[in-house]
Automatic annotation (TrEMBL):
It comes from the Bacteria. It holds the Pfam family DHHA1. The lineage of its organism: Bacteria, Bacillati, Bacillota, Bacilli, Lactobacillales. SUPFAM superfamilies: DHH phosphoesterases. Residues 16-153 form the DDH domain. This is Phosphoesterase, DHH family protein. Residues 222-310 form the DHHA1 domain. InterPro entries: DDH_dom, DHH_sf, DHHA1_dom, Oligoribo/pAp-PDE_c-di-AMP_PDE. One of its GO terms (molecular function) is nucleic acid binding.
């Protein structure tokens, strides 16, 4: 793994820099991407710095992308944040640049890039970007930069509730507050849901299947989304909802896509679930992962596997 100093040295070498992140981005993907782009632009105003990928409708308030052409990739430094593996990078031209850097906090199962910095102990990639800036004489943590990074950290720590939140995470967050970032406004925006999404939360408790082991799952299919007037992106707003139930230890939500397959969201309050995700075309953190199920039968198969994981974990605690 490379050092922050090596990464900053590389950044200084290139006049064109393209920063990417993963598909279907969450606040940490967008926050780390935009925060890094902003601090580089402020430190090196003569560099051309672009952020690429596809916009996410529900997160346009946080960050939007720019058009990145094939010509832009020529002789460019490409930096990918918050993306564990190459297929998930939200622009498959990422290899067309002159040099590639990976900055991430997920398990390093796909060690791509000419340089890489991966810290699985960090709460988020946004926290890593804050540390990168802190290590540098050129890059500065300004209020504009902190805005993006705070949103990223809040998103990936579940408002500082998840186990990945450390003393260092809180210290970094304190720096953002000291700079005057309106943390309440960001928190309120991230908590905001539509009436249709609220109705989905209510429906979720009706369709959630809870096993006596503490494993649970729900299928949010196309007919339900059509009935409630929501899309697949909006359906993601209820991913954390089952975790509020006393009876639930680990859970899956299957959101059906237009092609009939299911985007699987896996969450846990103890049992490790990322190995299960890896078996089904996915991966992620030990307690928060994503996968793909090709059919409802595969969804049910995954639930059987999840029940065993939770049961074995409970036995190991005794």
């Amino acid at each position: 793994m490379n050092s922050f100093a090596e990464i900053i040295t590389t950044i200084k070498k290139y006049d064109k820099i393209i920063i990417l992140r993963h598909q279907n981005p969450d606040p940490d993907a967008l926050g780390s991407q935009a925060g890094l782009a902003t601090t580089i632009r402020q430190a090196f105003p003569n560099k051309k710095v672009l952020i690429g990928g596809n916009n996410t409708e529900g997160l346009k308030w946080l960050s939007t992308v720019q058009e990145v052409t094939d010509a832009d990739y020529k002789d460019a430094l490409v930096i990918v944040t918050d993306t564990a593996n190459q297929p998930r990078i939200d622009d498959q031209r990422f290899g067309d640049g002159a040099f590639l850097i990976k900055i991430d906090h997920h398990p390093n199962d796909d060690a791509y890039g000419d340089q890489l910095f991966v810290n699985t102990n960090a709460s988020s990639s946004s926290e890593i970007i804050a540390d990168l800036i802190d290590s540098s004489d050129e890059l500065q943590l300004t209020k504009d930069v902190a805005y993006y990074l705070y949103a990223g950290i809040v998103g990936d720590t579940g408002r500082f509730l998840y186990p990945a939140t450390t003393q260092h995470t809180m210290e970094v967050g304190g720096k953002f507050i000291a700079l005057g970032v309106d943390t309440a406004a960001i928190n309120n925006k991230m908590n905001e849901i539509t009436l249709q999404q609220a109705k989905l939360q209510g429906n979720l408790f009706d369709i959630l299947q809870i096993d006596e082991s503490g494993a649970a799952y729900a299928v949010i299919d196309l007919p339900l989304m059509k009935k409630l007037g929501i899309n697949q992106e909006q359906a993601n707003s209820v991913v954390s909802t089952p975790g509020r139930l006393k009876e639930v230890r680990s859970w899956m939500e299957a959101v059906q896509k237009d092609d009939g397959t299911f985007r699987m969201h896996l969450r846990s309050q103890g049992p490790i679930i990322n190995e299960l995700a890896k078996k089904h075309d996915g991966g992620g953190h030990p307690l928060a992962s994503g996968a793909t199920a090709k059919s409802l039968d595969e969804v049910k198969q995954m639930f059987e596997e999840l029940k065993k994981i939770v049961t074995d974990y409970t036995k190991s605690e005794k």
